[in-house]
Amino acid sequence: MVTKVMQIILSPLLALIVGVFFLGLARKIMARIHWRYGPPLIQPVIDMIRLFCQKSVSHGRMFDLGIVLSLAGSIVVVLFLPFGKICPLSSSGGLLVILYIMLLAPLGMALSGGEGANPNISIGISRKLILSLGYEVPLLLVLLAVMTRYKTISIMEVVNAQQSTGWSIISFPLFLSGLSYFLILPAILGIRPFDVSSAPQEISSGPMAEYGGKYLALATIEHAFVLFISIALFVNLFLGGAANPVIFFVKMLVVFVLGLCINAVFPRFRIEQAIKYLWKWPTLLAFVGLIITMAIRS
Amino acid sequence: MSLELLLIIAFGGAVLIYFSGKISPKLRNCLAVVVSLLLVAITALLYGKSPNVTFYPGFFGIPIILRLNVLSWFFAITIVGIGLLSIVYSLQYIKDEKRLDYYYFTMLFINASMLGTVLSGDLISFFIFWEMMSWSTYLLISYKGGRAIGAGLKYIIMSIIGSLTMLVAIISLYNRFGTLEITALSSQMQTAPIDYTLFILILFSIAFVIINAFWPFHTWLPDAHAEAVSPFSSVLSAVLVRKGMYGLYLFMYVILGLNTLNKLSAGIISFNNVFCWIGAITIVFAALTALLKDDSKRILAWSTVGQGGYMILGVAFATTLGMAGGTFHILNHCIYIALLFFVAGAIEHQTGGVRDLNSLGGLIKKMPVTFVGGLVGISGLIGVPLTNGFVSKWLIYKTLILQGHPFLAFAAFLGTWGTILYGYKFIHNIFLGQLPEKYKDVKEVPFTMQLPIILLTILVLLFGILPGIPLKVVNAIGTSFGFESLNVTIWGIASETGTLNTINIFSALLVAAVFVWFLFRLGAKSVPVAQQDTYAAGTHIPKDKYHYTAEFYGPLYRMIKPFLRDVIDEFYYWIASSMQRLSDGVRRVYAGDVGYYVMYIILFIALLIFVQLKWKPW
Amino acid sequence: MDRNQITKWFKAPAKMANKYSLHVIYFCTGCGIIEVPPVITARWDAERFGIIPVATPRQANLFLITGYVSVKTLRPIIRTYEQMYEPKYTIGFGSCPVNGGMYWDSYNTIKHLDKYIPIDGWIAGCMPRPEAIFIAVTHLWTLIDKEMANGYIKYRENYKSYRRNQEMALGELEWPPLFPVSDEPRGNEQ
Amino acid sequence: MNKSLREKLESTFKDIQVAVLEENRIAVTAENHGVLAILRFLKDAGFDHLALLSAVDWIEDNCFEVCFILTCYMQNDDEVTGRQRLHIILKTKIPREKPQFKTVIGIFPNAEPYEREIYELFGIHFEGHPRLTPLLLERNYEIPPFRKDFDTRKYVEDVFDKIPFVEGKDK
Predict the structure, then answer these.
(1) Where would a tag sit more exposed on chain B, N or C end, judged by fewer CB atoms within 10 A?
(2) Residues whose CB falls within 8 Å of the CB of residue B355, separated by 6 or more in sequence, listed in order
(3) In a domain, D168, yes or no
(4) Residue of chain C minimizing CA distance to D146
(5) Domain-embedded: residue D166
């Protein structure tokens, strides 16, 4: 029982450290790609300390509760995700629960942003929801393919099954789904080619327009968690999730750097282009993957 | 505590209220509440028992039977519960309309007739109460006059078609088996040939699919909801539409039973498969059409159509988990859609009849209780964890995936994401953003309208965190149909292929939220600020113009609008207009004066003579 | 990071964090803004010092006014300054915000910007070079260290006279006063 | 081409001086009551683009001078020889005390903002102008700022320098 409580406390902490490290790394790699030095790796930590010390302005109770709910939702999702062998709440709900609790974060952010009474925020949120509809289509097909392939809805079983039958990114039908998941990873993370919902130039950073001080700090922590969750989900489902956290971290690092290289060199999609892209190639790959998995299974 | 007492109170109460309304409105209001309370009390007390009452009203000697089992109790409690809440809600809501006695009478009469359909033990009384329900619904839909009459007409035509097919089926059953009593029928139907059972089942399911507003027959529901009065549209969408589901249960499981149902398949096209695909199309089509609507009630109407698809997906799979998921979803949908219609009605009542989502906004500061109700209702509709919608959807998805139907599951997921989009649009355009100038002095709704909203909000959260309570009843229904019982515990389902533990999720979320709240309090205290003080690149914020609601998902509309033309609705209107042209032509033939008729006779005789001479048939 | 850096971090993390994470919001007026893009991009990378351009004043704590301030642009500048959160610093870029620069006798420009909003740092020069921004930022660091970058405290304490100056320059202001001016009612709550 | 234009102009209008400044610049000075007729004549002659409407303040001989610059929109500059298209500069003088002028929006609709600007900065009133309201300036001045007798330095002293610096604590 004690190890369980330890795991419950440890895994969000680990996720936070990994997420913040990824944020710092992202800015460093982006800078290096732009031929400049870039901030020190711990710049996100400095930013957060500064933001916590700043005063701030609130637009009403929902403005505060929304951001708190959004961060709490992200922390709870981390509890369901296996990080190496640590997976505290894997017994009370599998992949479906993860998929649904991942809803809490954007919903909380949308509610608190809406209270900010600013059209920039509303436009940002409507674009974010359209984008989420866009990337959910291929994501759902991918998850369904994995679930039908391993005939289970619990993520721990998927990870254990991959120990024996090898990574599912290599096995024939799921290779397509893995590729399609990787193609939509920037959309899930909301980074460069798909950061149309928080575009600083067009809609003055969308849902974050009215955030400052501690709100912005919580929003960046929540972004770090989303970063961790999306990549951890990919590693668990397709790269076999590791025996111990260190290998798991290395796999996540590889996936993240690959995703980042795409993000650093692409201009921003318009929302229609983003949806057209998301519903064309990744969906086709995921669809074919699902069809083949069903054919093999029956 | 017998069944006739229940029905007598229900129908007698309706008549009593009509006449007491003549005496004084106050007496009528409290009488209505007392009658509904009495109904709820009696139904609750009838939980465990299953009485069976038969009496012969001297009607061709066919017995009228009233019986109660756990299935009909489950539907009865939702009917009387939502009936009570809508009566309490309409005390204040409808205060300044005219013809209130007529309104209260039809409201209670509909509740009584729905109760009758659920309690009826044989098909004749089922059909009688069914007809009473359809006609009184027509009366109450067209209560407000104007466009409501057109909507009511549309409803009554489609429900008449349904009743006629049901009547044909009942008559053919009677002359084949000689009895209409359900238990007797279920034993004799086992021996009936397959094609006959399929014929009966299709006839009955047409009636139930129409009232349940599945995809091909859904066109009456959006108009009926948009035009009906708010308390009635919550009864209509929460409970009345689900009578179709009760009918399907009655026929697929009570009368036919499990084994005959599975035999009904020719190759891969089995009855269940067709129903599932209709359900899937309903979900996706309704969810995406709801996105395009701007009227708050129309969005909820389309979501009712969509949610029906989840129920049939769960139920038509005839596995224990699917059955539990479908039945539990009926209860959940009934709770949160009634809550959402009460919220939409409250907004309409306070802002003077404004339902257009483009001109509302910022009401969260003025109507906090309604906002909490709307938020919890929408999160229930979406299926956010810790709300009841999540548990039933989890069950349905698990059946779909483990039975190996990923594409049905994909359609259901797509429907959920469409629900998220129009759910947030509903919340954002009404409650968030800038408060327009003309709603500055909008106050919170009176307490009698807040009470149903608060009660239903508590129910949504309670069944979400402790799903064991309703799941016990749902499990009893499953076992009564012959499924093996689920391992239900207070916090969810414990089964080896993946358990659901809502208590863990709730406690994890609670601890995380408290921890983040302390992290939030760590920073300096934030100064509350008016809605004018928001970022506008340093310029002055114009009144009423700094608000983004019109065409909330503009880019998405432009992409999916051409695919979502309601072809079925246009097809029905085409049939109606062609029928009208045909009858117009016939009217010209019978012009009315005798000269024409004589001419027709002569012509006909000439024709006969000509045929005789030409071909000599005789 | 030499040893006293680490001790400084533990002694006053807030001050150090304010120094090394300056999110800038530029007010692009006049001819100064053309100097800012080279500061952000590869040649003079500002991100090394933790300086990132942000979109809204809510997220910023450094306000850079680049170029002459006409009477009309004074309104957005004041509003943007008031919408920034409390430990905030401003830098006047170029000689025009200092004393009107070459428009010293024009009827339409604001001469001394620090009569209306407190300015912590000046960069003289009729469009100074991008490196001048880094020099100003390093000076700002020393000011923050010595607790002298207290423009926002001065604004809070002397808000009445600032508000009076603004009204003298612009006539009637259409946004309520930020801090309670004793004689006028406080119009900031909803 | 401008030779024939000169004769046409001098023949149709009497008190008008036409001078060819350079190779394709024609300066026309006329009395202010004849200006509208000349403008209409030139517009029919093909000069349909009012490139500029401005005023000059001759404070010594106590008059304003309103200048119109017209070109033919479709005739573009000649790339080969680099010769610019033909510009006509029409000037009239109006008294300085109560500067009045008739609006030319009837002939050239795009003159509306130019006239508002000249009214705001010089104080020349254009009757018949639909909305003669301030266009650019934030505040109103008793002497319009572009006039020569408007002393900017004195204005700056008594408006901006009166605003005190903010030192020390508020009481």
Answers:
(1) C
(2) B226, B295, B296, B297, B344, B347, B348
(3) no
(4) C107
(5) no
Residues C81-121: pLDDT tens digits? 999 998 899 999 988 888 888 888 888 888 889 899 999 99
Tell me, what DSSP letter sits at residue C104? Answer: T
Classify the complex by whether its ipTM is higher than 0.90, answering yes or no: no
Nearest CA in chain C to D145: C107
Is residue D165 a part of any domain in this protein?
A: no
Residues 6+ apart with CB under 8 A from C182: C160
User: Helix A213-238 to helix A104-115 angle, to the nearest 10 degrees?
Assistant: 160
HEC per residue, B121-172: CEHHHHHHHHHHHHHHHHHHHHHHCCHHHHHHHHHHHHHHHHHHHHHHHHHH
pTM listed for this prediction: 0.90
Rg (CA), chain B: 27
pLDDT average, residue stretch B254-272: 73
For residue A269, what is the DSSP state? P
Q: Which residues of B touch A68 (CB under 8 A)?
A: 513, 516-517, 520
Tokens, residue B607: 């024709």
D170 lies in some domain: no
The three-state secondary structure class of D53 is: strand
**Helix, strand, or coil here: D27?**
strand
Q: Is the Cβ–Cβ distance between C39 and C10 less than 8 Å?
A: no
C–D CB contacts, 8 A cutoff, strictly below: 55
CA-CA distance, B200 to B204, in Å (whole number)? Answer: 6
B524 and C58 within 8 Å at the Cβ level: the answer is no
Phi, psi angle pair for D148, to nearest 5°: -70, -30
3-class secondary structure, B213: coil
Q: In whole angstroms, how large is the CA radius of gyration of chain D?
A: 21
Which CATH number is C21-188 given?
3.40.50.12280
- State whether C59 and A211 contact (CB < 8 Å): yes
For B6, residues 6+ apart whose C-beta sits below 8 A from its C-beta are: B39, B42, B43, B46, B115, B119
| pLDDT class of B322 with cuts at 50, 70, 90 | confident
- What lies within 8 Å, CB to CB, of C159 at 6+ separation is C177, C178, C179, C181, D170
Q: Minimal CA–CA distance to A215: which of A23, A1, A35, A64?
A: A64
What totals of helices (H) and strands (E) does chain D contain, helices first?
4, 7
Burial class of residue B167 in the structure, from the number of CB atoms within 10 Å of its CB (0-12 exposed, 13-18 middle, 19+ buried) = middle
- Cα A277 from Cα A138, distance rounded (Å): 11
C190 and B528 within 8 Å at the Cβ level: the answer is yes
Domain at D97, CATH number: 3.30.460.80
CA distances from B422 to B245, B565, D162 (A): 25, 18, 58
CB contact under 8 A, C168 and D145: no
Residue linked to tokens 């008739």: D102
Nearest to B345 by CA among B387, B378, B374: B374
Residue closest to B377 by CA, chosen among B440, B326, B423: B423
- Rounded Cα–Cα distance for residues D33 and A214 (Å): 70
Helix (H, G, I), strand (E, B) or coil at B259: helix
Domain ranges of chain C: 21-188
* Closest CA–CA distance from residue B556 to any residue of chain A (Å): 7
Taking contacts as CB-CB distances below 8 angstroms, the residues of chain D near C106 are 152, 156
Q: Which residue of D138, D150, D153, D155 is the best one to mutate when testing the C interface, meaning the one whose CB has the most C CBs within 10 A?
A: D138
Please indicate whether residue C189 or residue B173 has the higher confidence score (pLDDT): B173
The domain of D112 spans 2-159
Specify the 3-state DSSP secondary structure of B196.
helix
Identify all chain A residues contacting C23, using CB atoms and an 8 Å cutoff.
47
